[in-house]
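Case study B.
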Amino acid sequence: MVIQMILNGLMLGLSYALIALGLTLIFAIMNILNFAHGQMYMLGGFVVYYFYYVFGLNYFFALFMCIPTLALIGVIFEKFFFRRVLTLGRREESSMLLAMGTALLLENIALIAFGYKEQGVPPLIHGVIKIFGGYLPADRAFIILMSVLLIIGLLVFIYKTRPGRALRALAQDKEVTYLMGVDVNKITMLGFAVGAALAGLAGGLLALTFPIFSGSGTPITIKSFLMIMIGGAGVVPGAIIGGFLLGMVESFGYGLISGSMTYLIIFAMIILLLIFRPQGIMGKPWG
Amino acid sequence: MKDVKKFLAVVLITAMAFLAIPQAFAGGEKEAGKAEAKTEMPVLKIGVLGVMTGHAASWGLVCKYCAEANAKIYNERGGVEIDGQKYKIEVTSIDTKQDPKVAVTGAERLVSEGFHYVIGPNVDNTAISVSPVFHDGGVVYIPYSFNKELFSPPNENAILGMIASYQSGPVIYKWLMENRGIKSVAFVARNQPDPLNQRKWGVDAANELGLNVVSWKDTYEPGTTDFYPVMTKVIQNNPDLIVLSGVSPGDAPLLLNAARDLGYKGLISTETSQDLVTLNKVAGKNAEGFIFVGGATTPEIETEEMKYFRKVYEEVAGEWNDEAGTKVYALPAIIWGLQAAGKAALTDVEAFKKAMPNVDVKNPFVKGDRRFRFVGEKWFGQPRQLDVPMVVNQVKGGELETLFVGSVGD
Amino acid sequence: MNQKNYARIVLVATLLFIYLIVLPIIFRNQRYLLNIVITASLLSCASLGVWITFSIGRINIGQGAFAGIGGYTTAILIMKAGFSFWQSFLLAGLLAALIGFLFGLVILRLKGVYFAMLTLSLTETFRLIFLNAEGLTNGGNGIMGIPRPGALSIAGITIIPNFGRSNIFFYYLSATILIIVFLAVWRLYKSRIGWIFKAIRISEDLTRSCGINIVKYRIMAYSICCFLGGIAGSLFTVFYQNIFPASFQVNDSVYFMLYCFLGGLDYLAGPILGAFVLTGAFEVLRFIQKYQEGIYACIMIALMLWLPNGLMSLNLGKVFGKRKEKELETTEADKLLKSYNPDSGRKSLKKEG
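Model:
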């Protein structure tokens, strides 16, 4: 029983970490809370559904297609919506309502395009692995593996490459980054694209076990907010810890008590946490 | 000022775009009721009030499509005859968004626009919340809700449009005991009013039949995507039968996957109807042997009339939904009632209610000489239920196999 | 100045005349249309609360929770404790304010997105509490069959007779409450407290340095907001005669914000205008109701891109809304602050480079 919950938590936690990383990246660079993050996750699921199931192509190709599709949406959002509102910069609320608007828009476009029906894809790998009396379906093992690889890949990108360094610099100080000759607009766009693509990849991965439907975005958005509240907004390790913790707690909670009680407790814990550490576990103190 | 103009332009353009979408996308939608409106016939207005957006959208949409398909068939045959006068049927659909507030507003709208016969709503809380509105407004309606009070005196305007789980549950369990030799049962429900009530009735029925209820407390939240934890708990006691109380068509395949992946070998059943397409796609082999109450039709029992309805339904909705086999009865039942009651009932539902016990027509959708009546006296103390055949199906090789056909009247 | 005042008085009088006399007469036999105006009035009431939290510089996505608290308090007091509507109505508002006060002690320390995320979670938290506290709230089954308000009598004198299910009565009830609330908030913003609220939004540090206890004032603002949410929820509950955990959700909280934005955050009448325009427009154009959320989304985006000051900033604002000083207060002060803000620095740098 405990093993089973750990196995479930592992898969949830790692894929949640992936989602939280994308959200925190966008937040760090632009100070925008991307309300459409869950909807981007949902679209990733549909990309995989169409390429893998409907067109019958290779799963890995379908998963890869999440990157350009969602990155494109991210770029469009950044270039046409957020950049203008941020430069107008009248009130902080403006970018937030804009973000909510984009979330609603994506969800409704998905509703019109894909309908309300829940879709699913056939499993990629059949079979179940038994570990210490717990059951781990092969697909879930695959998700765990892929999440770890993607997280490592992202960390390498952020910490070891030139654009990654520019992203980090941008998150620290926009003005100085600009003075250092970095094309701030381009890097901001890149950051938004990477963030969106991460959400899409998570969606594409989890499409293997979870249903794909146009309404799946909002719960994920709320969960991803919880993750970065736990870990601290705008910090990479914080996102990983926040996502992983939430996944584990959710898994144990669902196993031991009911689902809504679990979330009630999670909410209460987060409010308590924020009393003592308003910046989350890993976040930097702020004024 | 330029910005202001831009803003107004965008709002106008989006508004127009959204106006154009219905025409472009859902061509068939509006025509259903209005087709062949050339001849000047008086109109009989039927309302559909159901959830048509969100998680449970398919429930309300099936009602809507069935009403539209039925209306189309009646209209192309020259309308329906009541007291020697032909009437054209017009269907108006309103979305409740599964929100009682929206449902009440929608009901008020139907009342103030002079509707007297309404199909829906689909969910307990919306069905109950519109009850006072329809009662005051003189509307007879056909909700798909399992709440007994709605159909029992002093309420007399609601007619149950389907077979309630407390009616089908005992029948299924009994059949499984006799034919499959089950001894123990476990229940799992979505943590929402309807499924929880259904679980309660299911547990009561199982206890009454002498089944050993090994667990019944497990629930999952609406919007749950990971069913492994809850299923891990359910299969611990290794019951012969797992009942998925009030499971939605979207969740059922995932629950099946979880149970089978975790190594459960016993039977799984539910009292609500399911969607075979989704089952096959998402659960595939894991759906094998899943037992549920089907839409009230199967190839074995369906008549030519039903086949034709199926064809029209597919034109209206795009694809057949098994639940349409149950919901096909709503509009004809209203017509049969009106024909029995006569002209007065068009504006006065009291006449309709008085005539309900007299309705006794041949059921055109089922082979043989099955009759259609308003039933349910045993449960509600008054005939306030449509006599829909109770078809219990099992998934076999990706197809539906009928286990047996029962009836509430039995 | 005199002329402007005159114009404003005429405008207000006309609006009141339409609201209180013309609409009820036209709609007297149209329960459905009356419903729409009642709904808009109640939504305005809750949105005014959200507007107050905006005015202290906090993004509040938690009003749904307090509407829920108000609604459930009313429902439980009426159905289980046998209170009359009038008693429970006040208690609902007060309890919501009290809970808002307690939460405010803690969460108002947070700013910006953290406050927004937390209030968003509050909406979800309270929905889950209502769902789980089965003994009190009936869980997911909700509380149904709540009676409409009965007669109100004080010291044996009937002030308001029992109107049964008549909607005209409810229309005037909601209208009266909206007008009272509006006047109260208006009076508040004419007073010193109103200026302090605005000062807090512009800079908490500056305000504090003037020797003002900002903690006290921001909690006051938040409690008022919650009170308004509570009474609106209470009225919604008796109006629809039922309440469920799903009655007030995250989406509702977001729409309260949208009404404020649509009307204009700088104008007290903004949220009311926003609520009436959006609710009304969808009833007029009911064939697009199916796409309501999609249209809301487009409006939200277009609004932020091209009309960030809301509808009130259109011509109407000149007559009805705030005058020059108001403009100066927000934009000039904002600009001043912005010049210390590195984010806007980038823009000016770019122009030179």
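Residues 253 and 281 of chain B are 9 Å apart (CA to CA). The remaining cases will be described in the next quarterly update.
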